[in-house]
Amino acid sequence: MPRTIRLLLFVLTVLIACQTNSSDPQPRLFGEFYVRYLAPERLLRAEATFLKGDSIATAQPHAFEGGVAFQGSNMNARRLSDKLTRYQYEQLLAYPEKARFSFKPDPEKDPVNLNCSMSPLGNFSIPGGISRQSGFTLLAEGSRLTEDESLVLRFADPNNKASTIILKGPSKSDRHVFQGKQVADFAMGPHQLYLVKKKVTARDEERITAQITMEYFSDVLEVEVQP
Q1: Do the Cβ atoms of 20 and 44 come closer than 8 Å?
Q2: SS3 (DSSP) at 178
């Protein structure tokens, strides 16, 4: 599903909650923001797209004359075929637990600073390996999840067949136990495993309705699937 459509579906729910009985509603700004960090490459990526309108039915793609900044640096503006402008940022650097998007919806007012944060993943292991009968235990630094966070385990066997397990927050520790039935269909033998920590938050502020998605991709771990 195109991102613009997903954003429209998201803001519809928020709009229903925040709309008033005003007969002359002011145009509303809607934004969708992504922050993604690839630990093996030390690569940080960010994206932002905007819509503006009196209602969800009239909202149209929106761009800023002054552009959009991420971590204080100007983002590249890319015009897409559907007239949507996507602001993009890419840089090799250490993972920043705190991130900030900045933009000026009104040239006469101060810029909007949209802050977001998520702690990174650290070292992780599966002591004793993976058993299709009894399951496995994952120990992963930084995987104590809040309510709006999740942990995705992505496995790939030697034939590049992918399998996924999703753990939703909240969780009380960095130790997670998985049942045998969750890996019963996995092929026997070596697999590669990497983790994705994900956080999705919704904001309904005075000057913007926003959805922010943060993702942290871990290094790869070699694991063995046993009977």
Answers
A1: no
A2: strand
Total residues found in the chain within this entry:
227
Asked whether the beta carbons of 26 and 77 are under 8 A apart, the reply is no
> What is this structure's pTM?
0.87
pLDDT at residue 165 greater than cutoff 50: yes
CA distance 114 to 206: 12
Neighbouring residues of 50: CB distance < 8 A, sequence distance ≥ 6: 29, 30, 31, 32, 61, 62, 63, 64, 85
pLDDT at 10 over 90: no
40 preceded by a cis bond (ω within 30 of 0): no
Q: Read off the DSSP letter of residue 70.
A: E
Helix (H) or strand (E) holding 10: helix 3-18
